[in-house]
Design goal:
Elements lengths: L23 H15 L2 H20 L12 H63 L3 H26 L3
Length: 167
């Protein structure tokens, strides 16, 4: 017995079905548009019109030979087929939306981090400016100093006038 033919020896698996490569993005866009359409009132209305037409053609209008009599097994088969395709399409659309949400969340985190860093920097700058403002004379301080100097000048001016008057 050849080494590759033995069951206890790992070997290359041969696929009986050839692999078909799809453009994941194009198929994903199709899945999202199909899922989006299936979630609308338009889809429900058209599906209802289809079912009513099917039932009418197979029960009421006896002019046609009914191709799907009363239990409507063929209609049920159509619905089952639709559901078997709709579920994976919806899941694929949800997975793509989850991936977009993950990327968006990561971007939001980066923006929040940068904003936090900017706010911390600005808070430090404001604290530094406040500390420097304690060393800088304020407008009120300068006014009070000027008033005191003016009063001193006025006192010295009156003293000089008194000294220059003959007694």
């Amino acid at each position: 017995m050849a080494r590759q033919d033995r069951l206890d020896t790992p070997g290359r698996r041969r696929n009986l079905v050839p692999r078909v490569r799809f453009d994941d993005d194009a198929f994903g866009v199709f899945a999202e548009s199909a899922a989006r359409f299936m979630g609308t009132g338009t889809f429900i209305v058209w599906m209802s019109v289809f079912v009513v037409a099917w039932v009418l053609l197979n029960t009421v209008l006896v002019i046609f030979r009914p191709w799907d009599p009363y239990p409507f097994i063929l209609l049920n088969l159509f619905f089952s087929t639709q559901a078997s395709y709709a579920a994976p399409l919806i899941l694929l659309a949800q997975n793509r939306q989850e991936a977009r949400d993950r990327v968006s969340l990561e971007h939001d985190r980066e923006v929040a981090e940068q904003s936090r860093a900017d706010m911390d920097f600005l808070a430090r700058e404001i604290a530094s400016l406040r500390m420097r403002m304690n060393d800088v004379a304020t407008r009120d301080f300068i006014r009070s100093e000027l008033r005191e100097l003016l009063e001193e000048l006025q006192e010295h001016g009156e003293e000089d006038k008194d000294a220059s008057r003959p007694a």
